[in-house]
Design a protein that fits this description.
- With 114 residues, the chain is α+β, with helices and mostly antiparallel strands.
- It has one domain.
- The chain has 4 helices and 3 strands, in the order H-H-E-E-E-H-H.
- It has a 3-stranded antiparallel beta sheet with strand order 1-2-3.
- Strand 1 and strand 2 form a beta hairpin.
């Protein structure tokens, strides 16, 4: 008798579940909005629709309301992102995909503190 196989949960759905701000009660609303931007998920109010990093290492976000805001410095964002990924219980494939999303939507840059 064949055992029916359960369908694989899409990678993006697994990231949505594992990085969902509701799992991390100490996550700031700004970090939740950043995660929402990366996953195209409705985290944060207002939602971030674009993130840019300036040449001097400042992270700016544009909201769905059209306003631009200073978010943090890039080093802090990178530390927070790495910390989130380390506690989220991601598989190697999920971690890779999360880093790809970060690279595509924000970017990995060299030392921006000098």
């Amino acid at each position: 008798m064949n055992t029916p196989q359960l369908p694989e949960v899409p990678l993006k759905n697994r990231l949505f579940c594992k990085l969902n701000p509701s799992r991390f009660p100490r996550m700031t609303s700004v970090m939740a909005a950043i995660v929402g931007h990366l996953l195209d998920a409705p985290f944060g109010d207002p939602r971030i629709v674009e993130i840019a990093v300036t040449s001097d290492g400042f992270v700016l976000g544009r909201t769905d309301e059209g306003a631009s805001h200073f978010i943090c410095n890039y080093g802090d964002l990178l530390r927070n992102w790495s910390g989130l990924l380390s506690v989220a219980g991601l598989t190697a494939t999920e971690r890779y995909e999360a880093d790809v999303l970060f690279a595509e939507k924000i970017g990995y840059f060299g030392d921006t503190t000098t």
